[in-house]
Amino acid sequence: MRRWKKQIYYHALMLPGMIFLIIFSFVPMFGIIMAFQNYIPAKGILKSKWVNWDNFKFIFTIPDSKQIFLNTIIIAFGKMLLGIIVPVCFALLLNEISRKVFKKTVQTIVYLPHFLSWVVLAAVVQYIFAYDGPINSLRSLLSFDPIMFMGSNKWFRPIMIFTESWKEFGYGSIIYLAALTGIDPGLYEAAAIDGANRWRRLLHITLPGILPIILIMTTMSLPNILNAGFDQIFNLYNPLVYESGDIIDTYIYRVGMLQRQYSLATAVGLIKSVIGALLIAIANKLVTTHSDRTMF
Amino acid sequence: MKLKKRKRLHTSDILIDIVTFILMLLCLLPLMNVVATSFSSSAAATAGKVGILPVDFTVNAYRKILDDHQFWRSFMISVVRVILGTALNIALVVTMAYPLSKNRREFYAQGIYIKFVLFAMLFNGGMVPLFMIVNKLGLLNSIWSLVLPQAVGVGNVILLMNFFRSVPKSLEEAAEIDGANPVQILTYIFLPASKPCIATICLFCIVGHWNDYFSGILYISKTSNYPLQTYIQLISATFDLSKVTDIEKLKQYLMVSTRTLNSAKIVISVIPLLIIYPLLQKYFTTGLVVGAVKE
Question: Does the distance separating the beta carbons of B277 and A293 come in below 8 Å?
């Protein structure tokens, strides 16, 4: 009897959260039906015409979609790459600094951009790369012509990748700093006695020590290959750079919410989330088989 | 030999200091520019003369914001939203994480629930269907549209669930023998034992709600109901001259260029985050590590 009472308590505790999950997570999943319809809001999901795979066929025929897919992957891959390299290097740098006050100050400042929204940082980035902004002033000092960075298809992607790394590298280094404290100090003492200099200790003790966590973080970032960062690009792009900067998520927003082509937007979203879920499953498999962790 | 070695170490130390210092400046200077611009005269700001220190120091921009009703309305909407949203987030995270942290012999349905929760984490219907649900429920343009759709943070549930599992079983068993029911065990044993984890999640939620501008764009069409970040997104994108009704207003507008005004608004919007920043730094660093070393 008491056992059943306990079960009822547990179910009751789950109930409120499950109601919210059902309404705002599971019911919208039925919305993907729209991807297989020519959805017309006035008719609703039940009465709109079924078109089977036509929306998907349409996506694969328009030239935009290839460009958008490519933009997404290039920007996301660049961010993933810098998102591993820069925080690791920065953590290694910080680890070599022995003066506590300096280290603490640096940490306080470099973690800050992580907590600011892209709405705020977009204003900062836009000013720095503006036509009359500091970077162009520097260029004119060196007698180069100013460039319209934010309107240039050549510069837009590198700027997105670089500024994302600028925002996140400090915060991203925390996990590696934690891993660095876990390395046995005895190893360094032994190496110092053997006459290993700073560079050799870094190469033969520190790097191998944090290699497992680097590999895990890399694997876990794999599913992000289709997430090029909606908030950043939405706040920084403009029609001039759609060619190089329009990504899947911004495309879904414009087509779905602004042009009200619900079916098309849902179909694009479905393709993205299927690939994303597949990548998460693969990454989780890799992490669980090669380490004692799971992603969840 | 020994002396030489010491000197080598010394130069590499300086090099490391310099590189780190440059990286720090890279983060700091752009932010300082915004602050400096907000305290500069509009002429200097439009001419692009402001670097990292104010030029022709003035607080005109801030004085002007004091009279800006829409700004403060949006500010208050954001404050209310953070309070409501975080309270709801925490309540649901705690109540869900506790039963989920039980194993299948203790809670028979745990397996089914966890599958549901993970499924919700992996898949979503996307922006458009969610918008239609919010619309059907009649939440558009109300503050609830900013709070309810993101009431359950599945990632946070998993984080707290893993933390609950690390609480010693013996504590719970002792309480059970004393006749405590699950709700009492949760409130008197699990909650006090997982304060740092809950504090971390709490801060996650506060920052998330404060910084979220996109819910406002999606669900709110009346500008007067915008939360602060959505409002700032709007003013960064457009400059509305239609509000200028007479010469006096126009003079005010010209006195404070949009650049200094926007900078001042951005600075004010960031102040609440700066106030809780010491807490953020303390808990986010530990929280991240706790989340990372889970089994």
Answer: no
